[in-house]
């Protein structure tokens, strides 16, 4: 009995003690939501749950808002600020319970910590993006534009600061500061320019290589550095209790900057060279050391009374740009900062923005006034400085508009002012609205003031080629426009200036084409005895001298490497340092070495543009260089990416992807009046993906990696079996096939290009004339009761209705014997369809490399027949411009109908050949593909091509009459 009483007493005591302990400090339920846990309830011991909810809402909403703004070419910072405003008291904060549930006051310290950590890293990236070499190389104009671009808005900002200080000084939450400090801050907020956003806008609008872009970028560097220095001064004055303290803060800050430049930077440079980071990119150790330097510098500037972001900014300025180190380091850090941390900071900024405080006429008057001062001050300062440096008014206004861009740097400045209690929530909101308006207006105003057509006109005017009204001052006397019959008959050098689209996966096909073009030009032998006997010097014989120069003029090949401009800041930095980056690019270096080995003039260039601007950039460069031919290699992946995945179990079909087909179609369609276009499909592209082992490609098939059992009992991979072997060419010769079907400038250009390639002594060319088959088809389509004389009459009529291109082809054919091809060029008349003729020709066994040249613009009726009556339209429908059954009606949208069918047949029969699809340049933009409106239509009197053809037609007719 006594024992039971003691046991009950002990049990009750233990239970009571446990209940008291649990009620006072109960642990987080480990069962989570299954034990009734509320995820939105903030727990100081486990803040990550609510932080994930907050971050997810901010990131998702930012991405959604940026989608429509991206079509307007607006920077992402606008979407980030709008996200913060929506989540703040202006919109979502008006919903009862939203702020307390998602952004409770107790959770803001952790949220603010993550946002400020992102801000510190972002200011480090801003400093890393600033290249002081721009300021040094253009210091004169950068100093003038930067100085006036800051002085005028600073002065106007000081003027409007007096009204703001007088009318809003009594707002709650402000520090007791003097008007001088307040005026300094407002002046800095008006004068500063957002350098990162400015770089993005210049890159997107392709202005970095223009005089406007160079001036704005150089002035923006100086503006950015001076603006941060003035802001540091302002913060020091606010944080100091006395003037002597502010002086000590500034002196320590200056000493620390000198210490970084003369003590820390040499040690860092030595370590980077020692680890090879300058040449090969930063190692993980270097990245860790850099982040430690950033945090330590931010800590130091924070404890001396200046904001921590200044320390991070100085570390970014200190690090080198040599060898692309800054770009490679940015690539390691930028994604985490830009995707996660930075949106949190601007969301935090938006939470402090309350549009509801703009509730009276006085406040809105200041909104208009602040926006006007920001626009007028910046535009006036930049415009006057640019005009004083000799730029025209329109260029000067463009520079002023670009310098007025505020962006995220302005918002950072405003947040510092809000945290330092210089600005109230009302004035902070006024300046946020100003920053949004100025940033949003920069791009459309720049496009309106400085369009692409005006840039071209201004460039030609400065070069002295046109007057201000656009009239040509020096008429083009290029010999390619000659209308003499002798030039037409001997005109086979159709590609003297070639622009090549450089791609890593397209180098084999491009090297093959360029090597065929890079033959030594034929020179007419000149007897030295005749020169000495002639009393008239050669210089007096202008026509002979012109002929000699024309024959000896080398082939000029220019390579253009197109790289995609992404959302990353490293992509923008790559554009701003494009000259140094181009010299290190392996593709351009390989292309240059190949050109030197072929003894031809080559050049290389990199353009970093959005993917939708690839075709326009390529054709714009061709127009600037006056290129005769643009060569585009087909992607081996079918996409715009040059780097196929090394881990794909099965390679994709390069012709079944619509992405590159769309690019090829845009180049064909937009380039009709710019230059001749050629798309190269290497034989590796024409291999059947599903049966790659059956294709005799230059690279032998790699056997399946097998695990082999050894005497040690361990299964290993035989490394020798994983080696890729390359075949040696069985023959040093190449055989070319050019098809002519009549009534097509593209077919005629294919023949001419083939004749130019045949000047290479290692090339054998066979021209397949399939025009005769169509003529006999027209005669055979007459009724069966038609007698023989009527049929002959029809044939005679068909011959009479030949187009000028047919007569030019006949003239070229008759001149082949006099061009010194030594029997390597033959013309074969075939009574087959064009597709049958080509397939029959390339099916003949040969050890030589094979290339087929066909025109793109062949009419569908000329290729309606398929080989042996078999249809091959089931695969590779993307290259024909569509998919499924409907693509058969649109097979001339990408490569053209003949190329589409030929690709399918080559794949089905596993034929070994390359393919070059060409499109001739149209001399009139409004000219239709059928320039003469059909057989027998008279040529346009203003069409020089038609007049040349008409002259040849008259000559051939006269010869026929003589016979």
From TrEMBL:
Primary localisation category: membrane
Places the protein is found: Membrane
One GO biological process term: proton transmembrane transport
Region of interest (Disordered), ranges: 861-886, 926-946
Entry membrane topology: Multi-pass membrane protein
Keyword vocabulary terms for this entry: Ion transport, Membrane, Transmembrane, Transmembrane helix, Transport
Transmembrane portions of the chain: 48-65, 77-96, 108-128, 140-165, 177-202, 214-238, 244-264, 285-316, 336-357, 364-385, 397-418, 430-453
Top-level taxon: Eukaryota
GO cellular component, one term: membrane
Ranges of biased composition (kind: Low complexity): 867-880
GO molecular function: antiporter activity
InterPro entries in the record: Cation/H_exchanger_TM, CPA2_transporter, Na+/solute_symporter_sf
Domain annotation Cation/H+ exchanger transmembrane: ranges: 59-446
Protein name (database record): Cation/H+ exchanger transmembrane domain-containing protein
């Amino acid at each position: 009995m006594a024992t039971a009483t003691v046991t009950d007493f002990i049990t009750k005591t233990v239970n009571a003690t446990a209940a008291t302990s649990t009620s006072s400090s109960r642990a987080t339920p480990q069962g989570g939501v299954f034990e009734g846990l509320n995820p939105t309830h903030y727990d100081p011991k486990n803040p990550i749950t609510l932080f994930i909810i907050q971050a997810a809402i901010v990131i998702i909403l930012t991405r959604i808002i940026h989608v429509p703004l991206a079509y307007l070419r607006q920077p992402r910072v606008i979407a980030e600020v709008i996200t913060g405003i929506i989540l703040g008291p202006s919109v979502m904060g008006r919903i009862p319970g939203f702020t307390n549930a998602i952004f409770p006051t107790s959770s803001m310290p952790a949220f603010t910590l993550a946002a400020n950590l992102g801000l510190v890293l972002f200011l480090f990236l801003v400093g890393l993006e600033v290249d002081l070499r721009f300021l040094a190389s253009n210091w004169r104009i950068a100093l003038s534009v930067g100085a006036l671009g800051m002085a005028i808005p600073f002065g106007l900002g000081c003027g409007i600061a007096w009204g703001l200080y007088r009318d809003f000084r009594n707002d709650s939450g402000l520090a007791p500061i003097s008007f001088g400090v307040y005026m300094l801050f407002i002046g800095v907020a008006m004068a500063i320019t957002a350098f990162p956003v400015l770089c993005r806008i210049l890159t997107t609008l392709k202005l970095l290589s223009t005089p406007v872009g160079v001036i704005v970028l150089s002035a923006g560097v100086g503006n950015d550095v001076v603006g941060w220095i003035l802001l540091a001064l302002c913060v020091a004055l606010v944080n100091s209790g006395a003037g002597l303290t502010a002086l000590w803060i500034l002196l320590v800050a200056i000493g620390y900057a000198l210490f970084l430049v003369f003590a820390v930077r040499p040690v860092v440079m030595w370590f980077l060279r020692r680890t090879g980071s300058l040449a090969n990119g930063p190692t993980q150790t270097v990245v860790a050391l850099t982040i430690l330097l950033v945090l330590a510098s931010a800590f130091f500037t924070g404890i001396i009374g200046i904001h921590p972001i200044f320390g991070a900014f100085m570390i970014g300025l200190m690090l080198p740009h040599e060898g692309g180190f800054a770009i490679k380091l940015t690539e390691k850090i930028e994604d985490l900062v830009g995707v996660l941390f930075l949106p949190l900071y601007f969301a935090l900024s938006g939470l402090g923005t309350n549009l509801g405080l703009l509730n009276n006429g006085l406040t809105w008057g200041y909104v208009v006034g602040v926006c006007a001062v920001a626009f007028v001050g910046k535009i006036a300062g930049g415009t006057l400085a640019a005009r004083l440096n000799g730029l025209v008014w329109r260029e000067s206004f463009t520079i002023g508009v670009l310098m007025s861009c505020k962006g995220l740097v302005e918002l950072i400045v405003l947040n510092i002012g809000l945290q330092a209690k210089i600005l109230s929530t009302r004035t902070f909101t006024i300046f946020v609205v100003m920053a949004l308006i100025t940033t949003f207006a920069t791009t459309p105003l720049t496009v309106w003031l400085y369009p692409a057509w005006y840039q071209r006109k201004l460039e030609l005017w400065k070069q002295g080629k046109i007057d201000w009204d656009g009239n040509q001052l020096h008429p083009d006397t290029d010999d390619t426009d000659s209308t003499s019959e002798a030039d037409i008959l001997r005109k086979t050098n159709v590609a003297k200036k070639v622009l090549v689209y450089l791609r890593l996966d397209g180098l084999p096909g491009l090297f093959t084409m360029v090597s065929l073009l890079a033959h030594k030009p034929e020179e007419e032998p000149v007897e030295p005895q005749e020169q000495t006997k002639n009393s008239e010097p050669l210089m007096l014989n202008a026509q002979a001298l012109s002929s000699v120069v024309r024959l000896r003029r080398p082939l000029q090949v220019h390579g253009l490497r197109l790289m995609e401009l992404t959302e990353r800041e490293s992509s923008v930095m790559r554009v701003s340092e494009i000259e140094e980056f181009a010299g290190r690019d392996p593709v351009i270096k390989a292309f240059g070495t190949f050109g030197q080995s072929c003894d031809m003039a080559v050049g290389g260039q990199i353009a970093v543009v959005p993917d939708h601007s690839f075709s326009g950039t390529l054709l714009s460069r061709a127009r600037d260089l006056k290129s005769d031919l643009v060569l585009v290699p087909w992607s081996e992946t079918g996409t715009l990416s040059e780097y196929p995945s090394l881990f794909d179990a099965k390679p994709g079909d390069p012709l079944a992807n619509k992405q590159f087909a769309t690019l090829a179609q845009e180049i064909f369609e937009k380039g009709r009046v710019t230059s001749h276009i050629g798309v190269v499909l290497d034989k590796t592209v024409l291999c059947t993906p599903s049966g790659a082992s059956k294709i005799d490609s230059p690279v032998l098939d790699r056997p399946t990696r097998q695990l082999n059992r050894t005497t040690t009992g361990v299964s290993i991979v035989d490394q020798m079996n994983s080696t890729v072997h390359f075949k040696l060419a069985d023959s040093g010769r190449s055989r070319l096939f050019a098809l002519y079907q009549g009534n097509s400038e593209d077919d005629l250009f294919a023949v001419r290009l083939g004749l130019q390639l045949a000047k290479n002594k290692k090339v054998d060319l066979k021209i397949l004339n399939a025009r005769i088959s169509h003529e006999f088809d027209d005669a055979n389509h007459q009724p069966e009761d038609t007698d023989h004389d009527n049929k002959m009459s029809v044939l005679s009529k068909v011959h009479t209705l030949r187009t000028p291109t047919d007569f030019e082809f006949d003239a070229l054919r008759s001149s082949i014997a006099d061009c010194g091809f030594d029997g390597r060029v033959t013309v074969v008349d075939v009574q087959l369809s064009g597709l049958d003729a080509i397939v029959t020709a390339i099916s003949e066994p040969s050890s030589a490399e094979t290339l087929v040249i066909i025109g793109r613009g062949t009419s569908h009726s000329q290729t309606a027949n398929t080989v042996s009556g078999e249809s091959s339209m089931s695969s590779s429908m993307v290259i024909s411009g569509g998919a499924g059954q409907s693509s058969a009606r649109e097979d001339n949208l990408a490569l053209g109908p003949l190329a589409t069918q030929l690709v399918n047949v080559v794949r089905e029969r596993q034929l070994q050949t390359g393919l070059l699809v060409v499109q001739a340049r149209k001399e009139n933009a409004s000219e239709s593909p059928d320039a003469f409106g059909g057989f027998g239509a008279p040529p346009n009197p203003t069409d020089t091509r038609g007049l040349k053809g008409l002259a040849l037609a008259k000559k051939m007719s006269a010869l026929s009459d003589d016979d």
